[in-house]
C-alpha cells in the first residue's frame, strides 16, 4: 500500500473569518497547491460549492481544484461530487478528488432532523496501481443530527456488505472524539479505527488550539503499519486538514 489521503472542510473557498479573497478562486489555488506539495493522492472535501452566487456562478469548486492539480502535477485528477443542498442557483455539497481512476459506489442523502440543513455521504471506489479501495466523505449536521446521520451511514454500509472491504472515511463529524456519533462511526455494524491524531484541534485553531478535533479519518480492512497522520497547521478555512500517509 502506498497512499496519501487528506480530508478538509474548505468552507466554500472562504477565508477563516468567512470573507472571500479578492479573487474568489484564490483560496482554491492555495488548497490545490497544498494538496500537490503534500504529495496527496486522494482528497475528501466538505463544504464545496458548485455554480453559486456566493462563490462564483461559473465555478464548480471541485472541478476547479482538480483541473489545477492536473496542470500542476502532470497527472490527471478526477473528482466525484454529491449535492447536500440546492442553493438556487448552484449547489453545496462534498467531493472526492483523486489522481487515480475512480467510480461512484454510493450516494446517501442525510436528511436533517433537528438542524437546518440536509447533509450527505459519498462513497467512491478508487483504483490505484496495486489495489482498489473505497473512499468515503461525510459532513454531518448539528443539534444532535450527528447521531442519526452517523447511524444512517454505518447502517447503509453494513447492509450493502462493505463490512469486509478496504475503506477509509474522511470528513467533518461536527462533534468531538468520545461523542455518541464518534462511537457509532467506530463500532456500529462493523468496527473501524480512528487513524487521525488524538486530541489535536481542527476547528478555529487560530483562535484556540485547545478546540476539539471534529474532522476524522476512519479506517477498516487495512494494516496501520507504517501509517502516520497529522493535522496540518494551515488556516485557509476555519478547519485544518487531516492527513494520513505512509512513511
Q: Can you walk through the features of this model?
A:
The chain is α+β, with helices and mostly antiparallel strands and 247 residues long. It has one domain (5-246): Endonuclease/exonuclease/phosphatase (Deoxyribonuclease I, Chain A, 4-Layer Sandwich), CATH 3.60.10.10. It contains four helices and twelve strands, in the order βαβαβββββαβαββββ. The chain has helices at residues 26-37, 61-73, 145-159, 180-187, and strands at 5-9, 42-50, 78-86, 91-98, 102-110, 119-127, 132-139, 167-172, 193-194, 215-220, 227-231, 242-246. The strands form two sheets. The chain has a six-stranded mixed beta sheet with strand order 3-4-2-1-12-11, with helices on one face. It has a six-stranded mixed beta sheet with strand order 5-6-7-8-10-9, with helices on one face. A hairpin with a 4-residue loop joins strand 6 (119-127) and strand 7. Helix 1 (26-37) crosses helix 2 and helix 3 (145-159) runs parallel beside helix 4. The protein is globular. The mean pLDDT is 96. Keywords: Endonuclease, Exonuclease, Hydrolase, Nuclease. This is Endonuclease/exonuclease/phosphatase. One of its GO terms (cellular component) is membrane. Pfam families: Exo_endo_phos. GO terms for molecular function: endonuclease activity; exonuclease activity.
Amino acid at each position: 500500500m502506498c497512499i496519501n489521503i487528506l480530508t478538509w472542510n474548505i468552507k466554500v473557498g472562504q477565508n477563516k473569518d468567512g470573507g472571500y479573497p479578492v479573487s474568489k478562486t484564490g483560496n482554491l489555488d492555495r488548497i490545490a497547491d497544498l494538496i500537490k506539495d503534500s504529495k496527496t493522492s486522494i482528497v475528501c472535501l466538505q463544504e464545496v460549492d458548485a455554480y453559486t452566487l456566493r462563490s462564483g456562478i461559473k465555478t464548480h469548486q471541485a472541478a476547479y481544484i482538480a483541473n489545477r492539480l492536473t496542470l500542476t502535477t502532470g497527472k490527471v485528477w478526477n473528482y466525484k461530487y454529491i449535492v447536500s443542498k440546492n442553493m438556487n442557483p448552484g449547489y453545496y455539497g462534498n467531493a472526492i478528488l483523486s489522481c487515480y481512476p475512480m467510480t461512484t459506489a454510493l450516494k446517501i442523502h442525510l436528511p436533517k432532523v433537528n438542524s437546518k440543513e440536509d447533509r450527505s455521504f459519498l462513497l467512491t471506489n478508487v483504483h490505484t496501481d496495486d489495489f482498489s479501495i473505497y473512499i468515503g466523505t461525510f459532513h454531518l449536521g448539528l443539534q444532535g443530527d450527528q447521531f442519526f446521520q452517523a447511524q444512517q451511514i454505518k447502517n447503509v454500509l453494513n447492509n450493502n456488505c462493505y463490512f469486509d472491504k478496504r475503506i477509509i472515511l474522511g470528513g467533518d463529524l461536527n462533534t468531538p472524539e468520545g461523542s455518541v456519533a464518534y462511537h457509532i462511526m467506530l463500532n456500529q455494524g462493523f468496527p473501524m479505527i480512528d487513524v487521525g491524531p488524538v486530541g489535536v484541534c481542527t476547528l478555529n485553531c487560530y483562535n484556540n488550539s485547545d478546540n476539539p478535533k471534529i474532522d476524522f479519518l476512519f479506517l477498516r480492512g487495512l494494516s496501520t503499519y507504517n501509517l502516520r497522520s497529522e493535522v496540518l497547521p494551515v488556516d485557509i478555512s476555519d478547519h485544518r486538514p487531516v492527513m494520513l500517509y505512509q512513511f
